[in-house]
Amino acid sequence: MSPRSEALGRVLVVDDTPFNRQLLVRLLRTIGHEPVEAADGQAALDLLRNPAIPTVDVILLDLVMPGLDGYETLAALKADPALRELPVIVISGVDELESIVRCIEMGAADYLPKTFDPAILRARIAASLGQKRLRDLEREATERQQATNDVLAIMSRSAFDLQTVLEAVVEAARRLTAADYGAAYAESGGAFRVVASSGGSVELDGYERSHPIAPGRDSLVGRVALTGEIAQLDDVLGDEEYASTPGQVAAGYRTLLAIPILIDGDVVGVLALTRNAVEPFSGGDQGLARGFAEQAAIGMANARLLATIERQRGQLARFLSPQVAALVSSPDGEAMLAGHRREITAMFCDLRNFTTFSEMAEPEEVLGFLRLYHATVGALVVEHGGTLEHFAGDGIMVFFNDPVQQEDHAARATRMAIAIRERFGALADDWRRRGHVLEVGIGIATGYATMGRIGFEGRYDYGGVGNAIILASRLSSDAGPGEILLSQRTFAAIDGAVEAEPAGERQLKGFSRPMATFSIQARTRGAPAEAAAS
Amino acid sequence: MTRAGGPIDEATYDGLIAMTGGDLEFINDLVDTYLADGLDQLAALDAAVASNDAAALTRPAHSLKSSSLNLGALLLGEMCRELEEQGRATQIADASSRVAGVRDEFDAVRAWLLEHRATQASA
Question: How far apart are CA A365 and CA A370, in angstroms?
Fold first, then answer.
């Protein structure tokens, strides 16, 4: 990742003969490499293991040396995980074929004849450097791939845990670009605040976290917020517009890179990386950082999506019955929506005289009444755990035992019908005083139906198809004002839980034979007609 | 062991100069290094003979061999190679006379190198 030019490298010459060292060093300089010298094996190992000395790219190793000789040095290099990959070119006379073979077997990359020839020297070093570059690139690529995989794994494991994702992104970006400090800023209320960071001193991180950055030219994060483009300051001290902050002074960082985190072209955050030395981030580093900024953007977009889903689910619940809203967003929702057969109890409820009422009353009055009626019935549906299939003007259909299963579905439907009738009575009193006689008629039937998604793309209802539903609808139509009619099967299912009386066999539209019906009498109120007269 | 021409193969020597891009100052430095180091190696060879330690011949002979060959002192290099082999085989038998031969040839090489340097300097 260093900006060193292609074919040149740092070459360590290990030879005890001063003449050879001097000649090799000179030849290496002529070729353009940067030579480093060691007079014996031990000196070479010490130098290679000294962290203060810049890394070497290739080693030229003499074999016959006092102390640690060439073979022992080679063995020590190959046994050291940190030095194992360094290419070693053994310097050997052409008459020493045996030792060359031995060294290659021990892991030497190549050999150089003792009578130095600049052309051969150049070629052998270039070949070894090439191999090393390739290995370095490979290792770098593997490292980057690994880091990307790590972040992706974290994202898939905790897709909606934005904090974890951002921390992984910042940490990986900082480590792989060899930055000293990395921070992810997120926009909130017009300013960019640190939401995740990696490296850096406590002072710097503390400063950055407590000082949100506003879009503007005086900071790099601010500039990126303005432009939406990646930006680098090779040296913050050399930039006229950059205003140094106590954080910068404390950390002493010099090179600054900032990458926008974009969602649909909007700057929702900034990924910033700093280096304490004036050492600009290479094109490769910037590409890498862009990749991580994209992952941060995906993380932020996921979090937004989650918030939207939660909000929609909340809103959905206001339009759909809570059971259907939950079903739509549940894991097995799709299978349930696709259709399934189940025994249900359906309840239909509509108003007697509603058509006359809507013709006579003002439209605003009708709407106001419907709102009140829907709100009253809606609350009762929720209270009894019914699934509201639809409101259609004055008609309401509710079913029980689907999608949430309820053993007492027939009894629930019946109890709810009674409650609707009672509440509606109170509601209707106001209108009755104004001369509008409105009464509910309710039909309840139990039986098997196919339940699921009904409709077409863009407009679906959760509903059912089955005789019980049709029967409930017909019973509702046939019911007198304030009457609740049950089918025989519903009556059998409630098993005396609610008092009902036979209401005769009725010939209903669409049914070939007369159907036995049962009626529930109002407990507290008299007959609807009498109530209207009182 | 005899030689037809001078102690230095001039083609090799000129090649060395060409290799450095005709940097005579560097060549003079290099020759100084060679001569100083050569004396050290000769002293080590003498010590090996004096202590009857054949194995101790190997490293100095090897060292003097490689630098001599690079400089064009081909005969001296060959003599050192033989001495190196003798050391590896731990044969001390005629080491004394062989080391004396190496010293004589080294002296001839040194004389040539110094003379050549003077020639260059005056050229």
Answer: 9
Is residue A316 domain-resident? no
In this structure, the strands spanning A181-188 and A501-506 are: unpaired
List the one residue out of B115, B24, B106, B1 whose CA is nearest residue B63: B106
Same-domain status, A303 and A333: no
Of B122, B16, B54, nearest to A30 by C-alpha is: B16
Structural domain count of chain A: 3
Q: Do A416 and A463 contact (CB within 8 A), yes or no? A: no
- What is the reported pLDDT for A361? 83
CB-nearest to A66 from B23, B59, B70 is: B59
Chain B contact residues (CB < 8 Å to A) = 16, 19-21, 23, 26, 29-30, 33-34, 36-37, 58-59, 62-63, 65-67, 69-71, 81
Q: What is the mean pLDDT of chain A?
A: 85
The predicted model scores a pTM of 0.52
Lowest-pLDDT choice from A94-103, A428-437, A516-525: A516-525
When mean pLDDT is compared across A1-5, A197-201, A496-500, the lowest value belongs to A1-5
Domain that holds residue A95: 10-140
Tell me the per-residue pLDDT of A338-396, one tens digit each, with 9 for 90 and over: 788 899 999 999 888 888 888 888 888 888 888 888 888 888 988 898 888 877 778 88
**Angle in degrees, CA A243, A246, A249, rounded to 5:** 85
Contact A16 B33 (CB under 8 A): no
- Indicate if A188 and A293 belong to the same structural domain: yes
Q: Are residues A390 and A396 in contact, defined by beta-carbon separation less than 8 angstroms?
A: yes
SS3 track for A51-90: CCCCCCCEEEEECCCCCCCHHHHHHHHHHCCCCCCCCEEE
Say if residues A452 and A336 touch (Cβ distance below 8 Å): yes
> What letter represents residue B39's amino acid?
L
Confidence of residue B51 (pLDDT cuts 50, 70, 90): very high
Flag if A19 and B37 touch (Cβ within 8 Å).
yes
What is the predicted pLDDT for the residue at A223? 94
Element (H, E) at A292: helix A283-319
Q: Which structural domains are found in chain B, ordered by start?
A: 10-122 (1.20.120)
